Each structure stands twice: as structure tokens, then as C-alpha cells.
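Hi D.,

Good news: the full-assembly prediction came through. Inputs first.
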Amino acid sequence: MKQPVINIKIAGLGGQGVIRASDILAEAAFRAGADVKKSELHGMSQRGGSVSSDVRFGDKVLSPMIPGGETDYLLVLSPDQVENNLPALKPGGVLIRPETVAESALRNKKSLNVALLGALSACLPIPEEVWLETIRQSFPEALYADNEQAFRLGREQGAKQYAH
Amino acid sequence: MTLNERLLLSGDEAVALAAFDCNVALGAGYPGTPSTEILEYFAHLGGHAEWSPNEKVAFEVALGAAFGSARALTTMKHVGLNVAADPLFTAAYSGVNGALIVVSADDPGMASSQNEQDNRRYAEAAGLPMLEPSDSQEAYDFFALAVEISEKWRIPVLFRMTTRVCHSKTIVRRREERMPAPTPAFDHDRRARVMVPANARPAHQRLRKKLAEMAAWNDDHGPNKVVASGPELGIITSGISFMHTREAAPQASFLKIGMTYPLPMEMIRRFAASVERCMVIEEGDPVLATAIRAAGIAVESKAEMYRFGELDVTRVRRILRRDESPEAAPLPGKPPQLCPGCPHRRVFEVLRDQDCIVAGDIGCYTLGVLPPFEAMDTCVCMGASIGVGLGLRHVLPEEQARRVVSVIGDSTFVHSGLTGLAEMVYNPPSTGHVVMILDNSTTAMTGLQEHPGTGRTLLGETAPKMSFEQVAQAMGVQQVHVLHGGSTVEDLEDLLAQARRSNDLTLIIARNPCLLSAKRDARRGKEEKA
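Then the structure:
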């Protein structure tokens, strides 16, 4: 498979799970056999401020940071973090908003980030079973059923709304 | 995790795994973004890791281990190396018997630091070899090479990482076999290790001889590579800048330097002569460009505006096309803040309401400078709150002097506050002074690390707990007060107002555990039960 580099930025607020979500995405791409790099800043950003994480994967990734304005997919976990992150998106890039999945449709509303990853997954060349296996190993086993439901729901929604 | 496995690791994790696979006997450090995760992951793998009170002590512990023929690792952020600089410079003379790898994690762009000093300067200043990885695989591979260099030349090796190397995750192939461990032993080589002038003079000569040998080795066998492409543009680079630049200029030829001190100058000379236009791309200070030009090799360097902040692909493209127009500022996000439920918020409300002049320090509580508090007036380095507060007290008119309060966190107090208290008792200002320790019983800013005042080790095991109040009393502080969680805002207001009126030396310990650490400990407790 010849795979040009896909650039994904996940953004939100400190404590919202941005880093965990980007870890899952990077791990899924890694398991799917791609070259992967992921980058973010820790430290000060943990105190409730804006946080974002870059994940890039493809045949060969060089810089771990997405060049300005070259983000293919921007996944935002907090509604107030959309505007300041929009300039990162390339023309024609896809913005996945936190409202994509209704919390009320989830068995466990703590699974929202997993549902949003599901929406993103509909746009990416990573097999569904790789995603589910990665999610299974990223959380305690007891949460898997909730996360699976959230992921599938998000993936369905993403396929309708975002996938070309 | 097995040998020869393919893994997705951060640079910090890769260094820890390399240390483990190289049979490093001891890792000591002080937490500091972006270096903190190295020792935590080393401990997680089963390595012997410890948090020391500060970087100087950590360095000395690791040096002792390396004097005893073991392999040792010490980790710190860039400014931590300033604290450890005293032993660093003389350890270059004494050398080591085992291996000593000194990780300096620099923070260009100051994501979480008070300055963006370029620690490549330390390699030249101290006369120590320096390796600079550009991703996690190199962090893993170069660490083993650093061990080999350290053992071959019996010298500490500086291992310089930067934020984007430390915190980016990239793929690592683990080595097939672990490096056999040396057996620690001591021999009485006093001329090498007792740095009195008569021994230090020949030691300095030996150091310069080692550096000349290492420079020649670096030219022939160093971890440097040429990526040959067209002759129009040749780029000399190192560390993370290599990744940004290869992406920004895929058509260029590259000399990528892995060992940046002492430089492989003949290799650089040949490369520069092989291309029509030769450019140095480096983050931070023009260290490479200056050294290369001083060797009589003509190279282009970046414009001054790119000394500031991190590089990325966009900025490297600008450097290459000599674009010096103003850069677009990123849209402001939400700034960090003191946690909404932080029990120490009220301290800053009181300091603000009493119109105090606050000499502050390094930690989460530095966020007391932001609205709605704006209750911090100075912040320089670890421990500076006490000395700076005393200096202000000595010179300000009495009305202002009485408003000066030094505010320091518990981990920072252990790191560098004790000598400040000694100064206060020894040279008291005429109006006395007030020091407040905001004791949240953890090193919160860097992610909840233990320290000698928490009663736990890096591994989470129970340890003796240093009592700040007893220490202060023993040092001669006249008034020592502890405010626990049950105390009211009025208690704090009254105590502070009274302390500021008196001419006594007062220490107020506001003791309230960090909510995040309480949450973590509860989770740990649950897991232990399960």
C-alpha cells in the first residue's frame, strides 16, 4: 500500500483526554503497519488550558509536527476550542466537532472521546478490528462493551457525515 | 515486551528502555518537563530509579555510581543542568570508571520553562562529548553509543534532547540482546578523582587529549550521516531540525550530525565543499554555524529572528527562502490556570487582598501571577523566592518592605529553599521576613512526583518524611506556623497580617494536598486492593 502522510490534529482542554485519544489513534495506525509520529506538549498545558496533539501516519513520516495549515482531519473535543484550532486545517480538510455524537445516545457518557474517534475512523485507512483491539487494550476490560458501542455509533455517524 | 520488538515510544521512554537494555545500574534525577518520564519509565521497566532533592545531588549520586564502575544515568531539564553544573565541569576532569550519561532535556520555545537556554553550550564549556538524537529510534540507539563512548574514554557524556524529541512518539526497534552488565568495584585512584590543584592540572591536560581523540573518532566513526542528493543545496543539521528540514527541502543533500561535540570538522569540510550552497539549520542559538565558520568553512546561517522559539517545517521553509517578514501569531488558546478546586487558591486571594509584594517560585503556584489573583511579582529559578524576597526587604522603605512575602512550593523548598532559610536566619532584614511554603505534598506541575517531603519514593514505597517545621525550627526561624486544611481564610489573613507587622522571621506552612494526587492515590489504593 502506497500511503501518503495523513495529518490529524486532536484538540481540547487539559484533562479532557486529548493525549489519551491521540495515543489510541497513533497506536491503531502503528498496529495497522504504518510509520507513525505523534507530538504534543506536556507540562503547563495540563492545567486546564488549550491542549492539542498531532498524529501523522503513512509510509514515511519526517517531522512529528504537522506543518501549519496542512491538517487533513481536525478532531475537537471541546466546542470552545474549535475557532482557535481552525487555522491548522488545510483547505478542504475535515473538521470533526464534539457535537457529532450525542452524549444521550451513549451507554456511558464517558465514552464520548471513543465515539469521536469512531467518527474519525470512518475517514481513515485503518481496519475496524485494529481500532477495536487497540481500544480494548487501552482501558479496563469492564469498559469495553460501553466503548465498543460508542465507537460503532461514532463510526456510523462519521461515515454519513464526513467520509468521502 | 520482548527483545527485537517494534514499539511506538516517546523519546523519553526510548531512553529509559535503552538504559534498561544497557544494564544501567542507577538513574537519579529531579523532575522537570520534558525529562520527567525517563526515570518513571525506567522504574516501570524494573530499573533502579530515584528522585533526588535537586539536580546537583542527582548528578553527584550518579557520578558516585560511575566512580564505582557501574553504568549510571542522570536526567534533568535544561535549567536543571545549571544546578548540576558545578559537579559537571569537574567530572569532566576526573572522568569515570563505569559510564555516566547526563540527559539534558532542553525546551526551545519554552512550552513549560522560564528560559530557552541552549545547552549545547555546556558541551563546549565543560569539554564533554554530546550526542543529539532526532527521534525515538536514535534516542534508543544513541544511548547505547553514549554508554560505549563513556566507557571507552572514561568520561561523562551529555545526551541532549529537546521537547519534541522527548515527547514525540515514534517507532523503535529494540536491540536483539541486552548489553552485559559490568561488576561494580572501587579502586583507589586518588590522582584521578581528588581534584586538588596538583591533580586537576594534569586532569585538564588529559581531558583535552581525550577531546582531540574523540573529534578524530567522530570524523571517522561517529553517528553522523550524509544523505546525498543534488549538489545545489547542502544542509548541515542535527536533532529534531533534521526531521523538519528533510520535509521542508526533500531535494537537498544533508549532513546530519549525531555527535555535536566535538564536531566532525573534516567531514563537515568535505560536505561543504561538495555542494554549491551550504546552509546550517539549527534550533536555538547559532552554535553549529559559529563553530563551523570559526573553522574557516563558509556556511549560511538562519536569520536572527529564528533563534527564538521552536523550529517546524513552516519555519524551516521560511529560513530556506530567506523570508524575514513577520510571522503570523497563532490564535490564542485558553491559558493554563490553577485548578478550580485547588486549596491553595485562597492563599493568592489573601496575598492579593493584602497588597503583598510576592517573591514567587517555580511550580503550579507560579500561575498565581495570572488573573484573578495577579499575586506574584517575581519568578526566576528554583528557590529564588527566598533570596529575592530578602534582598527586597533589605533595601525597600519600611512600608514596602513589610509587604514582601516569599512564596515557595514544597518540592521547590526541598530542592533549593533550605539555603535560603539559612541566609534569612544568618542575615535577617530589620523588618524580619515572611516565607510561605505552599505544601501540596507532591511535585504537581511536572505530573505528581514524590520528593523527600512526601514520605514516598519514586517507586511509591514508604520513605522517611522530612518535616519542614522541624527543619525551620532547628535552623533558627523564630515563628513557625502550620495551617492545615481545616483552617479558615480568616486564620490565614490574621496570621499573615500579624507576621508582616512583627520584626520576626516567620515561616507559614499552608498544608493542603493536591487534589489530583489525592485522586491518583485513591485509584492506586483501589488497584492495590484488587
